[in-house]
Design a protein that fits this description.
InterPro entries: Peptidase_S1_PA, Peptidase_S1_PA_chymotrypsin. With 418 residues, the chain is mostly beta strands. It is built from six helices and 28 strands.
Length: 418
């Protein structure tokens, strides 16, 4: 792999966004603001099949199914109204998700008060009103608690959320309100060829991260965040350079518009992912870079992309590599949540939030590939778009939503799609 010479000093102030970074913003630490919310696809686009859709399929096969998550021992925990349905639930999960979803650590059950469909209907009822309120961050079906969770930035927001719950005549014991700092949109910084996931890219006025190489029909390119383009939503043929101009490596060709109305909260615009596709203008490989750890930006490995998971589950640990914080990890605390993007009008449907005891994201990490480590390489599962600090977390769009909105598949080991 040949490293390019970087002749221009990277200075100045690029705007802070999931993919962008500014010296001023970083000097004071990560900015505070809500994470982006999952939104429905633009008008006319088919809604992608999500994790929640798959869980509803399991419930149709096993009435009384209340959801599932992974615990700290790596076991799959299945919530059931009736514990005698455990064997049927295991068969249904394998049928809907694939046998590989059953971990080696095994499957255990926990009692459920409400079924997953009851909780999903409750979340959908609450979301349009609640996420239109100031200071709210997300809504999610929380399989761990068997309730719906509502994230608020500060304790002061609890009162207005409580009033909304009462107005909607929702059972109060079915809802948890949790304090959750805002998640703001969030660049390894040398030049490399061929390009791969996790490397710094520059777009006009911003430093971001190249997400992952991808195929769109017969066109080879890569994916990064929509907010890393010149206009979030819509195509302006934004150029992407690696690591800095003038080394052009991609041109934006697909970036669906955001839609309002329907289940999109009042005053906001929605999509399923913060993603855009760039046609390749340089050699593109099938790797995602890794660094030794947080804030160590030296590349330690170039693992190949060997597979994908469209929608990961609550409790699983995922990794990401970004141009600012390097390779970090987080445990998925909120899965397939509807999430507001801090300081912007954008909301995302069925997005994810992964937490850590230490900082795992920052400005410039926008567009980072989110993946699982496996013995042969990495398994892609999403695209990071935001980071927060209360607690430390990063927000990401699941690969299923990215694929559906952009019409792409990851470019995988062997030079084929996966």
């Amino acid at each position: 792999m040949r490293q390019q010479a970087i002749l221009r000093v990277v200075v100045g102030s690029a705007s802070l966004c999931l993919g962008g970074w500014s010296e001023a913003a970083w000097a004071g630490g990560p900015a505070q603001g809500p994470v982006g919310v999952l939104a429905e696809p633009a008008s006319g686009a088919a809604r992608p099949r999500t994790l929640d859709d798959a869980l509803l399929e399991v419930e149709r096969e096993v009435p009384g199914f209340g959801g599932m998550y992974h615990d700290e021992k790596g076991r799959l925990v299945v919530r059931l109204v009736n514990a005698t349905a455990a064997p049927a639930a295991r068969r249904a999960i394998a049928s809907v998700f694939g046998a590989e979803r059953i971990p080696q650590a095994g499957v255990v059950t926990q009692p459920a008060t409400r079924t997953f469909s009851q909780l999903k209907a409750l979340q959908e009822r609450l979301t349009p009103d609640v996420l239109a309120l100031p200071g709210t961050v997300f809504t999610d079906v929380d399989e761990k608690s068997n309730r719906v969770a509502i994230g608020v930035e500060k304790a002061e927001a609890r009162a207005i959320v409580e009033r909304a719950i009462a107005r909607l005549a929702v059972a109060r014991d079915a809802v948890d309100i949790v304090e959750w700092g805002p998640i703001n949109p969030t660049n390894v910084q040398s030049g490399w060829t061929p390009v791969g996931g996790g490397l710094q890219i520059e777009t006009p006025g911003k430093y971001c991260t190249l997400g992952f190489p991808a195929l769109q029909g017969g066109t080879l390119g890569f994916v990064s965040n929509s907010h890393c383009t010149q206009v979030q939503g819509g195509v302006e043929s934004t150029p992407a350079y690696q690591a800095v101009a003038p080394w052009l490596v991609g041109t934006e060709t697909t970036d669906p518009g955001y839609a309002s109305g329907g289940s999109c909260p009042a005053g906001r615009i929605c999509r399923s992912s913060d993603s855009a596709f760039f046609r390749g203008e340089a050699a593109i490989a099938t790797y995602v870079v890794q660094t030794p750890g947080a804030f160590d930006l030296n590349i330690s490995a170039w693992p190949e992309v060997t597979g994908k998971v469209l929608y990961p589950s609550q409790g699983q640990t995922v990794f990401k590599t970004g141009r600012t914080t390097g390779t970090t990890s987080g445990t998925i605390q909120w899965a397939c949540a509807t999430v507001n993007s801090g300081g912007t009008p954008h909301t995302f449907y069925c997005n994810y939030i992964a937490t850590s005891a230490t900082q795992n994201g920052a400005g410039g990490d926008s567009g980072s590939p989110v993946f699982f480590l496996n013995g042969n390489g990495v398994t892609l599962t999403g695209l990071m778009w935001g980071a927060g600090a209360s607690p430390w977390n990063f927000g990401f769009s699941p690969l299923g939503g990215v694929q559906a909105e952009l019409g792409v598949v990851p470019y995988c080991q062997g030079g084929v799609g996966c």
